[in-house]
Write a structure and sequence with these properties.
By secondary structure, this protein is α/β, with parallel strands linked by helices. It contains 14 helices and 9 strands. Strands 1-2-4-5-6-7-8-9 form an 8-stranded parallel beta barrel, surrounded by 5 helices.
Length: 319
């Protein structure tokens, strides 16, 4: 088994979850500056896309800076051959690890038999892992998945994956059908830890779902026996959360506005015309909350249509 950087991490380690259209290089740098997780993941990236002539539009997802290390590239796709080709490319690009998405529940993707649909197609899942490992050379290969597709299949599915000699397995404690509508079931995560202790003790297990701060993560580490914790939406409530000691409420209005401006400036500098300004709007509510005038400021910012308007609103805003 190639474990790479994973075995060098202190436990529990904390990972910023991959989030499509959120955790691009810009947001990862913002989080790295506010309080860095131990590991970053890219947004999920299509192997078919990366291997196609249109690769330039997809490769935005794989852009990164040295501040985001260790950085794992997350990939998805249909055919083992494309996983092999993509993995070779990811090695050349200098990633620290490769993760296979077997958890995304989005209908148009699972209809193609990809991502969480692989839970019901274990033979293809195995071929994909094999192909990825072949292309990955010395890089560690991991899988992120759920506990079932329509119904729970935790034991059967985790056993299949843990027989593949993978470096790490992230378990999001919900089925595909459950989307994010019910609470994540961490008792199922614990079952996976027990299976790995029996059949693949060197594979690391990461639990995911509904963790909102580091102290909860530390508690879950002890209670469920995982090696690491992955946090996604928690950063929407507190972008400083990986720091461990900073509550959002303790931050001044200026700190919040400054962090937003840093995000917007970096977005413009990084993407120029390659990503549209409106993509940024969903981030405003992360920063502009919990102080006098925040609601009005947020509403005004949501009405802006370019960087110029954004900056003009902030110039007029008096704390
Ligand atoms: C906006 C958004 C985009 C996501 N994109 C991805 C993705 O690209 N790859 C992936 O494996 N999971 C993706 N997820 C799932 C998260 O990584 C994570 O498993 C899920 O949000 C549960 O963790 P949380 O409760 O800490 O947010 C996404 C989730 C959200 C909210």
């Amino acid at each position: 088994m190639k474990s790479g950087f994973w075995t060098e991490l202190k436990k529990p380690f904390f990972i910023l979850a991959p989030m499509e259209d959120v955790t691009d290089t810009v947001f990862r740098q913002i989080i790295a500056g506010a309080g860095s997780p131990d590991v970053f993941f890219t947004e999920f990236t299509s192997c078919e896309g990366i291997c196609s002539p249109g690769r330039d539009s997809v490769s935005k997802r794989l852009r990164f800076t040295e501040n985001e290390r260790p950085l794992v590239a997350q990939i998805w796709g249909k055919t083992p051959e494309k996983y092999l080709e993509t993995s070779k490319l990811l090695v050349e690009m200098g990633f620290d690890g490769i993760d296979i998405n077997m958890g995304c529940p989005v209908t148009k993707i699972v209809k193609q038999g990809c991502c969480s649909a692989l839970i019901d197609n274990p033979s293809l899942a195995i071929e994909i892992i094999e192909a990825t490992k072949e292309g990955a050379g010395d890089l560690p290969v991991s899988v992120k998945t759920r506990i079932g597709y329509k119904s729970r299949k935790t034991e059967e599915w985790a056993t299949t994956l843990l027989q593949q000699d993978i470096a790490l397995l992230t378990i999001h404690g919900r089925t595909t059908k459950e989307m994010s509508k019910v609470d994540a079931d961490w008792d199922e995560v614990k079952k996976v830890v027990e299976i790995k202790n029996r059949i693949s003790p060197d594979t690391l297990i990461v639990g995911n779902g509904d963790v909102v701060n580091i102290s909860q993560g530390n508690e879950y580490y002890k209670r469920y026996g995982v090696d690491g914790i992955m946090i996604g939406r928690g950063v929407f409530s507190n972008p400083w959360l990986f720091n461990g000691n900073i509550e959002f409420e303790d931050k001044s209005p200026k700190d919040k506005i400054d962090l937003m401006c840093k995000h917007v400036d970096l977005f413009e500098a990084t993407w120029g015309d390659n990503k549209n300004y409106p993509i940024l709007k969903k981030f405003f509510k992360i920063y502009i909350r919990g102080f006098e005038g925040a609601n009005e400021l947020r509403v005004s910012l949501m009405d802006t249509s370019d960087f110029e308007e954004f900056r003009s609103i902030l110039r007029q805003f008096k704390l």
